Amino acid sequence: MSAAPAAMIGQTEAVAPGTQFDEDRLAGYLGGVIPGMTGGIALHQFQGGQSNPTFLLETNAGKLVLRRKPAGVLLASAHAVDREYRITRALFEAGLPVPEPLVLCEDTDVIGTMFYVMRHVPGRAFWDPRMPDLSREDRAAVYDSANATLAELHRVDFAALGLADYGRPGNYFARQIARWSRQYDASRTRDIPEMDRLIAWLPDAIPEMGERSTIIHGDYSFHNLLIHPTEPRVAAVIDWELSTLGDPLGDLTYHMMEWTRPEGVDLRGTLMGKDLAALGIPSAGDYARAYRDRTGFDVDPTHPFYTAFNLFRVAAILQGIAGRAAGGVQTAANANEVIQRIEPLAKAAWRSAREAGAA
User: Which has the least CB within 10 A, 34, 83, 96, 107?
Assistant: First the structure.
């Protein structure tokens, strides 16, 4: 949820002010826990990433990635890098496409906050869902791989992986609405009437659905999918901060915002109104059918409630950035630009709520 080049994201830059730490101390710590690692590190920070600052470490043991909690006062339950480590460890061992996690450090004396380190996975992360640099055939293959990867995640037996306590099964949307309503209020910096209307309307507007519980990534979008450097397939799914157990529609409908996101409410592009056949991108209906065929789940992701919910959720997440920035904790240089998206997202969410019957 940050500014990026039109096609892809994932470039690195110098470490931003306010996120620096003692590199020599980190190198010494890692040298004691990662086999074969000796000497210093070359440190770079990944662009974007509004929540947990992420760094590329070049070492004699290869390229590594470090994810840390930001410094400062944080909202309860936010920035849980230990949960990220746990879920990626379980999924990596089960053979799913995630980076290999190497070590979780809960000792805040090392770099000032909890962090974990994983293997670097080379790949391309697309910001614009139209993926203008790809051929029509490769674009179609990438979308099919993203669909298959999400279906594979949702078919995982999470209890068999020791993750039965990773979240509370059932009532996913009700829990999410309550969570993001609380976090919005906790980080509120100004009043946005549409957000207050959504907080009041959403809990009683959840469509009737069967009880399904799967692992939920929570931010399954192309900016969190690393596409193989030369092949049109998902090499790794990254950024598991919002993962939990819940209804797979939570992931599917958020992912399918690519088709329904109104123009201009997000720094990313949209597929709304585009010639999908010419691009080689499936229609929303065809994409949902492919997912249903792969999972066997009888789901309908097209109800406008889901658009309203997901736009509201993104607005609440960005409000957390606004709250941290107001408190002097800013984890990306373009935080102010991102904050400007909160009200347009809220207004677009309320429009979708009106389509779903809100008065």
Answer: 107
Query: To which H or E segment does residue 115 belong?
Result: strand 115-119
Q: What's the whole-number mean pLDDT along residues 304-318?
A: 94
> Is residue 282 within 8 Å of residue 290, measured between CB atoms?
yes
Closest CA to 242 of 4, 3, 114, 50: 50
Q: What is the dihedral of CA 146, 265, 5, 187, to 10 degrees?
A: -90
Over the stretch 2-44, which tens digit does the pLDDT of each residue have? 334 344 456 777 887 777 889 999 999 999 999 999 999 999 9
Give the best-scoring range by mean pLDDT among 131-145, 160-174, 203-217.
Answer: 131-145
User: How would DSSP label each residue in 163-177?
Assistant: -TTSS--S-HHHHHH
> Is residue 13 classed exposed, middle or buried when 0-12, 13-18 and 19+ CB atoms within 10 A define those classes?
exposed
Spatial contact of 30 and 103, defined as CB atoms under 8 Å apart: yes
For residue 26, give the 3-state DSSP assignment.
helix
- Render pLDDT for 95-113 as a digit per residue (tens, 0 to 9): 999 999 999 999 999 999 9
Structure tokens at 291: 């997912």
DSSP states of 303-324: -HHHHHHHHHHHHHHHHHHHHH
Q: How far is CA 284 from CA 90, 120, 152, 233, 291, in A?
A: 31, 32, 19, 20, 11
Say how many residues make up the chain.
Answer: 359
Q: What is the token pair recorded at 273?
A: 């109104």
User: Which amino acid is residue 197, in one-letter code?
Assistant: R
State the Cα–Cα distance between residues 47 and 53, nearest whole angstrom: 9
pTM beyond 0.85: yes
Give me the pLDDT at residue 6, please.
41
Q: Quote the CA–CA distance of 226 and 311 in Å, as a whole number.
A: 24
CB 234 within 8 A of CB 157: no
